[in-house]
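Summary for the funding panel

The consortium committed to producing paired sequence-structure records for every protein in the target list. Below we show the first two records in order, beginning with the earlier of the two.
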Amino acid sequence: MSLLKKIALLVFSLLILVVIINVGLNFWLNKKLPIIISEKNPTSYTIAYSILEINLLSKKIKASKLIIAPKTKQLENGKKLNIYSKIESIEISGFKVWDILFNDRIKANTIIITAPEIVVEKDSQNAINNSKNLGSAVVKPFQEIIMVSNIILNRGKLKIMNTTTDKPILSLTNINLRINNIIVTDDLLQNKIPFSYQNFAIKTDSIYYRLNNNYHLKASNLIASDKDFSVEKFEMIPEYSRSQFTKKLDKEKDLFTLRSESIKINNIDWGFKDDKPFFNANSVIIDQLSANIYRNKLPPDDLSKKPLYNALLRDIKFPLKIDTLAIRNSLLVYEEEINFQKGPGKLSFNKFNLKANNIQSGFQQKKLADVAIDINCKFMNHSPLKLNWTFNVLDQKDRFTIHGNVSNLKTSDLTTFTKPYLNATTQGIIDELKFTIKGNDFNSYEDASLKYHGLKVTLYRKGAPEKKNKLKSALTNLIVKNDTSGQTINTTATVERDREKSFYNFLWINIAAILKQIII
């Protein structure tokens, strides 16, 4: 036999051997994988599928039309937890034959999950009762079936339902997710995030999250990575009407309604260290925020001490740092209501722009730069208002300084607040008010200058607010100085802080003290 024929025969024999081995391994894997997935499945879930395809040459496994359901009712800290899922397909690439044959586990490079619909049923309000259970109850069992370095999820849906109320806790639509270079170890399984990764990226069309019994969050076009975050059409909406919310209160409390066209957080560094969270960001930018703050005075006063912002940041129990916070082209409305018959008094801050630098918690800090806040807006939609506010988080006396300037304020614009709240209206123009307030947790000192003209007060009858009280109005206008005769009047004042009231109440009584010194 010639050498050429011998070589050809050898090559042919090798090809036959490869085919036989490939057919044999394919046969073996088709027998082995269902056993790993079902009979030797260590998880608390049954996994069923319609089609299973294995390709040794391309090292790919594809399962189609999967259904995942709990074998029995699961428990999480005594609470029921059930997970159900329908999945269009799961494709595993770069798998290791050896691990399937001898370790009863699939080890691969990448898993691609297409169109999963996941429903999690809980009989508690929290999306996750105990973050460590995420590692022990979910990540670890599936890690015993499959180990992968990269996860890709396309067109997913997730809904977490509270079976007690039959209301969603969390809902995400059209989720697209990628996590690269995943590592899972026994030590990592004990962490808040039960695995490590190099980077991730996620996009969703919409998100709903029930924050607590009083509020839920909604947003669209959420895009996040390990470095950046953005969301559009953000809303934080009360679960109750104003009257319902007020009836639930045992003491005064603000009701918030927040909407924003977009929120962006740039250059994020976050995670957990020694079981404590940390969060750092270069900037947080909130565009076209519409914020409504409502307070009803019917419930009893909240007599607890209200810390100033120095103390609030100083007492945060984890590292937090935001280099720049910007709120742009926004609207803030504060409403306060004595009863539901008169309606609320309203103060508005239109075209509101805020820039704050050096926001940082005091956790484990010895020295910090001052927090500096600049505000520009139109008070009551017409009057330019500028504030410059500085304080240091580590200052145990909670000292702060505010420089302010209000100009061209038509006092009639305050009618939406003074009429329902004070049963009074005013006319006249505050040409310019400048003030500097230097305060702390106990008191403040301020100096100011004021120029105004044409001031006139109208009081209304207590039992008939639509009718003027002409006598009281006349007496009040005898006491009030009508104008400053074209001059700018300078004054100083000192104010004691009511520590059971908020910082903004402290700011207001400082301004009221200035006005009282000059006008009366």
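The next record, for a separate protein in the list, is shown here:
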Amino acid sequence: MPSQEVTPLDAPAPRDTVQVEAPETKPPEADPLKAETPEAKIPEAETPEAETPEVSAPEAKTPEAETPEADAAEAETPKAEAPEAETPEAEAAEASAPEAEVPEADAVAPAPAAPDTPHQRRWRRRGWGGWREKYPVAARVIWWTTTAVALAVVVVALLMPTQADKFRLAAFVRLPVEAIFGAAVLIVLPRKPRIAVAVFAGLGLGALTVVNFLDIGFNEYLGRGFNVVLDWSLFSDAQGYLQDTFGKGGALGIVALAVTLVIVVLALVTMSVIRLGNLAARNTETATRTTLVLAIAWVTCAALGVQYAAGVPIASEHTMQALQFKAEQVRRTLRDEAEFAKIAKKDNFANTPPDQLLTGLRGKDMMITFIESYGRSAIEDPVMAPGVDATLTAENKKLTDAGFAAKSGWLTSATYGGSSWLGHSTFMSGLWISNQQRYRTVTAGERLTLPGAFKKTGAWDTVGVMPGIQKAWPEQKFYGIDKLYDSHKLGYKGPKFSWSTMPDQYALTAFERLVHSKKHDKPLMSTIILTSSHQPWAPIPKLVPQDQVGDGSIYNAIEKAGKKPADIITDSTKSKQEYGKSIQYSVSSLINYLVKYGNKNTVLIFLGDHQPIARVSGNHASRDVPVSIVAKDPKVLDKIADWNWADGLQPKQDTPVWKMNAFRDRFLTAYGSTPAP
């Protein structure tokens, strides 16, 4: 509302001449400035006395202050009266000829501003409008920065690779067709549908971004992408691993950080899509031209096959392809469940009579031992191989001096970087157990496993030594293990070595004390899993004199003096070095045990369950693991002479490679088992 400083005269208005109700007759579209000039409505007021109410009328004109036009003008320009006060011509005109100069005053008066939108009024009520006017440069910088960040977030989300080694600039400097299509849709939609579509698209793109991060992690650790149907159950195992590695507090902190990042990603991507959609809608003409140009450029690049480098096309369909791949993965997973159930029922040795199983090994003490993460990279990688190869050579000499001999080959594991139980079950069952669904299916059935075959004969007692088992293990029955020694039954009183509950040397010593040294009516078939080479490979135990192992208390000082996971976990080279040392420790512990406690009837099969994670084995490493059979009786190794395995504990580069699930049937056949499907 105009202030009294605008009025050239300041005389009070007589009460009988004030026209309070006059504004009610004014049409809504009337100029509010004209409404504030009473002289236009009283032509006969030529005397000075008549001028007095004209000048003073604005003071009494309370109804006009409530008009929407006046509110809008006042809200848009808080000091709208200032320009009138600063116009000398207007003041002179009003003072000399108030009636005749009304049109001229109208001509020079500033035009009223358009009413604010509801959004602008809310903005001003929050106080941001005043801040923007006070600091226009900072406001523009923030606006452009926020828009640029929103654009970058959407582009990164649309073009994000699923493997860490593919993160390079060329991957993000491309034209995503999904962005072009999305922009075209958002431009033409009205406000409410546009916001709804933007929210839906933003949440979907944010969820896909989270899955992409999971793909990166799974590729880094397990050598495969995240399976949206099967892999949710692995998070509980990951939580246990984090707790064993970083402690309970550290694990909770990591989990809280992960949850926070998921929420931030979903919110940030969604808000970015909404902002870009609103910006396009406010600048329809520019946005339409830009979208059309980008669409033409995309079609041209796609038709000509333009690429930055091999496999990096400028015209990108990355997000659509990722969605298609995930949808196909879901279909394959659901279809695989039914197909695998049929495959699992077919067993070449399911109906073999007990007296026709394993006739070539009767009377032998059998040991099947898995060394955690013992992969081909340990023998061939230039960082790890020198130490591991030297250890294998030295341990093979110990075997030879003690009268043992060995043959070694390669097996391709069904898993990589983790999920050891998939490798164990593949080796034992003769089925390709590559995911959790298959594992559940096979362990719920009655498939004949290697320990189960020995048990079925009635000629062996079956035992299991599994220090990594820390809770109930229902799979014991499936594997055909009569007696299980888990982490709670081995009598260990020493410290944990990160994830590993006890050193391998102690586990083998406990096996000798509790099982092997006892008198038995039957030979033993023992399944042993050694865990000291499990990631994160810090701290690593050390070999101690056998007579000092005791209850494991001796390892307290060794654990305290060892490296911490944080010392190596982010450094690939250090991780490789420590991983190699852990393999050397595990192999030495096993061979030392065999030389000390083995005899002419001992037969040892030992192998790795999978390769170490990609950070150690490499992004494109094979899934091969070494496997060896060791015995004193030459007849045992003669039965596998046609396998063409290498002599000693170290397979050669050209040694035959089998899939891990092929071992069971080959082994049963080689040692006298008769197939009977």
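Regarding this second record: Residues 1-109 have pLDDT under 50 and may be disordered. The two ends are 99 Å apart (CA to CA).
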